[in-house]
Structures are given as C-alpha cells and as structure tokens.
Backbone:
C-alpha cells in the first residue's frame, strides 16, 4: 500500500498544483491552451518515440494485450448500453456518460506507469495507448452517430485517428525499435530533455482543466459513469488478465490503465458532436478527483491477485 501511494502521490499532487495555480490566475489563462498544444503535439509524442525506440518492446505480448483491450472495451460498451436501456437518460447525455465510462486520461496513465513501473512500464503503456486510442475514438464516433442521429463523420474520425500525434509517435518509436535503426545519438539527448518536461507539464494542464463548478449540476449519471470507469473496469480487466496475460508487468499496467479517470479531451468531442458538454465537464472533474481515492485502493487490492 505504502509503495503504491508513494508512487502515485506526486502524480495527484501535480494535478492539485495545476488546479490551484489556475484558480490563482497564474501564469494567466492565456498560458494553458498553447501549453496543451505543446504537450499534445510535441512533448508527449517525443516522450513516446524516445522511450519506445530504446525499450524492449519485444517483451510485450501484442496479441494478448489486444485481446485484453478488446474484451474490456466490448464489455464496457455492452454494460453502458444495458444501463441506458434499464435506466434511460437523454440520448445526448448518454454519449457523455459513454465517453466518461470508456475513455482514459493518457497523461495520468503515462505518469503513473513511469512512477510505478519505470521505463519498462512506459513501454507497455505506449503499446496500450497505440491500441486503445484508435479503438476508443471509433467507438465513440459510432455511439454519437447512433444516439444523436447526427453524421459524426466516420471517415473524418478515421483520418483523425491516423493523424493523431500519439498514435504516430507510437508507430515511429516501434519502427525505430524493431528495425534496429534506433534514435540517432544526436537526437537522444534532446529527446531526453523534452521527455522530462512532458509528464509534469501534462499533469499540471490536466489539473488546470478541472471545473469544480460543473460538479454543482452533477447527477446520478455522473456517479454511475464514474462507478463503471473507476471500479467495474478494473474488475473486468483483472478477470481478463487472469485468463489471458502471463506477464505480471503487462497485467499490472493494463490494470492501471483500466482504473484511470476519463480523458479531458472528451469535452471537446462532446461539444463538436452534439453531446452533453456540461455533463461531460462534470464527469471529467468528478472522475479525476475520485480517482485520487479509488486508484490506490483498487491497485492495492487487485494487484494482490496478479
């Protein structure tokens, strides 16, 4: 318990610092949007390329990880649709509940993987991201199309996945690794410095994006979305890992990712595709805050079985 808390404490502390300095108006509201672009388009892709090009990714059982992720996403989708059938809410609100129940915060996941499992954990996390990000984007677009009766643009969504800088970085990093080319020596030191900025700045940005005011209108849908994401998902992944995954490290990182709060980028998609943006903001904030309590306890309890 103490080891996990020690590893996760800096992650959550930076989220709180980010929220605190945003509330104080420092360094100014104009800072955060360009900072998020810098993180998303440069720092995190550099981190993924740097770590993947040097890591032993051959030790990651790609097919088994893909099966584990596929089972998790399919089960989560069916569960959320079943809840909507049994206790229906407005369709546009359900799309936000779905995103909240399915998506994961990449920044928190990478930071927690590095803190708990080091570079080996980061390599596994990068492979998980390469599989989950495109799958989740396509699933979310499909749900928007079905529940809002709007053309969510499947082809444009596919193009967005292909152009996603995190996916491109994973592909480049794995190519450099498997091809034996590696990252040129002159670039390694530069990439190392940029990578060192990615995780702390990314966590500060996540904290800065939290909206406590959105929680005032939070209802039951926010709670059951959080319950599915923060409690049931780790339980499903635990069962999947016990059945499919032999590597303890891979199972641990998969379990960590299944316990993550939803992604802050879900708010943007909710606004663009006709979802319930205020509810999405409430879900993002509620899950991020709740995960500070649930992640340590879920990991402590569930990791005992792996």
Residues:
């Amino acid at each position: 318990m103490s080891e996990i808390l020690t590893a996760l404490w800096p992650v959550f502390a930076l989220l709180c610092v980010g929220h605190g300095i945003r509330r104080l108006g420092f360094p100014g509201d104009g800072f955060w949007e360009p900072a998020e672009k810098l993180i998303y388009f440069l720092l995190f892709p550099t981190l993924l390329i740097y770590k993947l090009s040097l890591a032993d990714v051959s030790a990651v059982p790609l097919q088994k990880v893909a099966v584990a992720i596929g089972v998790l996403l399919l089960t989560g989708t069916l569960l959320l649709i079943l809840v909507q059938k049994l206790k229906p809410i407005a369709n546009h609100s359900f799309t936000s509940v779905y995103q909240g129940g399915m998506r994961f915060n990449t920044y928190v996941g990478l930071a927690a993987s590095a803190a708990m499992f080091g570079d080996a954990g980061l390599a596994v996390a990068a492979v998980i991201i390469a599989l989950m990000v495109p799958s989740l984007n396509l699933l979310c677009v499909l749900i928007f199309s079905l529940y809002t009766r709007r053309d969510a643009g499947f082809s444009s969504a596919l193009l967005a996945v292909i152009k996603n800088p995190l996916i491109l970085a994973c592909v480049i990093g794995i190519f450099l690794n498997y091809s034996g080319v590696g990252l040129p020596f002159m670039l390694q030191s530069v990439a190392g410095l940029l990578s060192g900025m990615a995780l702390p700045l990314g966590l500060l940005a996540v904290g800065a994006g939290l909206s406590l005011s959105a929680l005032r209108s939070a209802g039951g849908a926010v709670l059951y979305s959080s319950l599915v994401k923060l409690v049931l998902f780790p339980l499903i992944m635990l069962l999947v890992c016990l059945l499919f995954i032999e590597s303890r490290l891979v199972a641990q990182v998969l379990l960590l990712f299944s316990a993550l709060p939803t992604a802050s980028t879900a708010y943007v998609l909710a606004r663009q595709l006709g979802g319930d943006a205020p509810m999405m903001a409430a879900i993002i904030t509620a899950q991020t805050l709740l995960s500070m309590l649930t992640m340590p306890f879920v990991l402590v309890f569930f990791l005992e079985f792996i």
In short: The longest helix spans residues 106-148.
